[in-house]
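Appendix B, example 12.
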Amino acid sequence: MPARQERPLAAVPRWVLLLLACALAAQVAWQSRRQGGAPAAADLPPAPTAAALRLVAFGETAAFARLAMLWLQAFDSRGDNEIPYQRLDYVRLTEWLRAILAVDPRSAYPLFAAARIYAENVGAAKARRMLDFIFEEFARDPNARWPSLAHAALLAKHRLNDLPLARRYAAAIQRQTTDPSIPSWARQMEIFILEDMNELEAAKIMLGGLLATGRIRDPEERRFLALRLAQIEQRMKAAKPKR
């Protein structure tokens, strides 16, 4: 995929930025009047459709999407908020992230925020909603969106202690990405998760097949994977009941 050339915000016509600022300010003001104070995280309004956001963007979708994300994050960045992100309505939050991403599909910001901010700082149920959103959107552009799903796999493994879910995400990266520049560690995550699940036979088959294809050309990487394969075989041998 060719490198994306984004214009800085300074290059966006001022009237577009003013229009967006007015629209967002009006939304915040309406919430303030309705609640009698500054908008709280729980007051996140329903997300508009992507079509409505595109209409307001007047063709400046990349800049609009970035500003919309800044506005969205501001809903939970008040100084008196001792537990960030806990009160956000994650159903509505997901709708906002999906709509903003649809406005600018090449942006990594919504998925980055979902993986690194919103999924990391809440309870398991809300975190799973964010991870499901990342997984769903990954399928629309695997070669560009794999980093967020890789992080989602790590969260599923280490934070949720859900190895089957982590494997599902890792398997999607391994099977759906085609860009040769994607690092090997991302493509090999499923193998190591299978080891953690004690699915040694499946891990051995996948790792052996990977080595047999000849796709791994770096000598150090081949030695590392060959060592892991030997360790798996040793674990399988040790696990066999003695007669």
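The longest helix spans residues 14-35. Residues 1-6, 28-39 have pLDDT under 50 and may be disordered.
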